[in-house]
Amino acid sequence: MKLYQTYTSPFPTRVRLVLYAKGIEVEIIEPPGFHSSAESKGDYHRINPIERVPTLVLDDGRALPESEVICEYLEDAWPEPSLRPTDAWGRARARLLARICDVYLVMAMVPLFNASGRPRKTWDAGRIAAALAEVEKALGYLEIYIGDQGYAVGVALTHADGAIAPQLILAYEWAPALFDAPSPLGKHPRLAAYWRAIQTDPIAARVIEETRTAIAGEQAKARAARA
User: Fold this and answer.
1) Does residue 143 contact residue 168 with C-beta atoms inside 8 Å?
2) Alpha-carbon distance 144 to 155, whole Å?
3) Which of 41, 39, 37, 69 has its CA nearest to residue 55?
4) pLDDT digit string (tens) for 101-138?
5) DSSP bridge pairs for 55
6) pTM of the model
7) Residue 72: in which H helix or E strand, if any?
8) Sign, Cα dihedral of 61, 65, 70, 73
C-alpha cells in the first residue's frame, strides 16, 4: 500500500498513528504542490480528485481519500490491535472528540493557515486575534470531553488521539509562535494534563515529533525564501 501525505498536515498524522499502532507497512509518498510549495500538484489529481491529503492507495490500485475514512478502513481491515474503545459510549466519545477537532478547531485555524501563507505586512491583526479567540473556544470544547486517564478516551490509544495531538501542536506551539501570541496551554487544565500525558505514549510521541520536525522545516524554507 501507499500513503500519499505530508508531515505538516494534521490529517495524515492520525492515519500514521493508526498505521504505527497496528504495525502496518506502507510506502509513504509526499506529493508536490502542498503547503508553501509553488509547484503544481501534477498527477496527484488522478489519484485523488479532491486534491487533499491523505490518500491511501491499496495494492490493487483502489484509492481512498479522507483521513477519518482511512482510519475506519484500517480498523476494519486490521482489527487487532484495536484503536476503538471497547464500549459503545467510549466509541461515541472518541468520534465526538475527533469531530470537535475537525469541525471546530480546524475551522478556527483556517484564517491562521491562510495568513501564514501571505507576507506578514498584509496580515489583518483584528482577524488574527479573532481567529486565535476561536481556537481557544474550540479548545474549551475539547476540555469538556477529554479523558483524564492519559488518553483522549480511556486508558489506551484511540483514533481520537490521532486527531487531537497534531491539532494541539498547532494550537499550543505553531500559532502562538508565528503570530506572537500567548499560548493557550494551561487555560484548560484537563486538556493541558492530557497534552503532557499523551506525549509519553511512544506512538503518539513519534507522530508528534514528526509533525514538529515538519513544521520547523516549513518555517526554515519560508525564512530562506524571504532572505
Assistant:
1) no
2) 18
3) 69
4) 999 999 999 999 999 988 999 999 999 999 999 999 99
5) 4, 65
6) 0.93
7) helix 67-77
8) negative
